[in-house]
Amino acid sequence: MTAQVNRRLLDSYVTEVWEKANLGALEDFLADDFRRHVSPTLPPLDREGQIQRLTSFRTAFPDITLRVEDVIADDERIAFRSIITGTHLGALAGLSPTEKPITVGLVDVIRVEQGRFAEQWGGPDMADLFRQLGAVYRIED
């Protein structure tokens, strides 16, 4: 894949999954053996785990938006920085809805293989997200 093709892949992902809230499209974007690395100390999420993660975010923040600020792409990887906004209207990680708005930074690096996301590192600043909701964020292992 070229950098330009990978950039278009990211644009399609943002449009389908984030703007249109089409979580079913994740089946098309994520490789069968997809791995999401959310922490260097925890095992990566598999494809189903990533779908569940994004479903949880969509449930907790039904009005969630992702605005891409910067993209760097080459033949194998896409790195992007974005801003997530939304209103906490559903439970998230055991935290009841607060109805508070959030604005959180996100940095991700994605390895692309055969036109699909094969691996992903990074994510939203969860500590800042939970701080905005008035909660303390802990990673459980």
Shape: globular
Biggest β-sheet: strands ordered side by side in the sheet: 1-5-4-3-2
Please state the structural category: alpha+beta
CATH class: Alpha Beta
Into which percent range does the helicity of residues fall? 25-40%
Topology:
Blueprint lengths: L2 H17 L6 H4 E8 L9 H14 L4 E9 L3 E11 L13 E13 L2 E9 L1 H7 L9
Parallel strand pairs: 1-5
Antiparallel strand pairs: 2-3, 3-4, 4-5
Using brief descriptors, characterize the structure shown.
141 residues; alpha+beta; Nuclear Transport Factor 2, Chain: A; globular
How does this model look, in words?
This protein is an alpha+beta fold and 141 residues long. The chain has one domain (3-132): Roll (Nuclear Transport Factor 2, Chain: A). 30% of the residues lie in helices and 35% in strands. It is built from four helices and five strands, in the order ααβαββββα. A five-stranded mixed β-sheet has the order 1-5-4-3-2. Strand 2 (65-73) and strand 3 (77-87) form a beta hairpin. The radius of gyration is 15 Å and the shape is globular.
Short description:
This protein has 141 residues and is of the alpha+beta class. Helices cover 30% and strands 35% of the residues. The chain is globular and about 45 Å long.
